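Researcher: Re-running this chain for the archive, since the previous output was lost when a drive failed. Same request as before.
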Amino acid sequence: LVFPTHPNGLAAEQFRQFRRNLTEQFPEGGTLLVTSATQAEGKTLSATNLAWCLAEGGAPTLLFEADLRRPAVARLLGCSVQAGVESALRGEVEPKAVVTAAENFPLHLAAVAKPVRDPGQLIKGIGTRRFLDWARAHFRWVVVDAPPVLPAADALELCSLTDAALLVARVRVTPRELLEKSFKLLGSRLRGIILNEATLCWDSYQRHLAPYYGPQTK
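Model: Regenerated structure tokens:
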């Protein structure tokens, strides 16, 4: 995570610039779907950093974990989940029962307690729409950590319910053809790309940026 480790570093500032761009596009806030072409591209990490950044800006922000197959948010944040968001999606509890203020973090969280057997059906169900409607009414920003877009239809189902989609890719890892497929599937809702493991030329960075941002790990 960028903000608890290097809150004044270059990566944190890039997220803040991204926040500014999103605020200009959506001055009243909105629901943002974060996905990737395939797994292991840093999707959950990017979604969490983005939610943290939006919350840091003073806007009530909810991180909604919608990857019901491979949940990772609780492990990433080092927290336990008592009531999983899957319970709200099934209609077993009210949405507010699965939302908690993340301990030691500036955002609210609706995380999965354990993987479910019927993720596709649950995402397509009325409970997901009801949960997002409730979240919109109570938070300025809702960041949806969605499954990868290519392996299953879950992300596209969620995309139809959100205001914008952001695609995460790993530089020199994500195949170009998979990115192009993802672009087509997400369509007009795609509003940005988050590149993980993107590096600047170190000599150029050191000469121009390091004096301002302070020491960084090479």
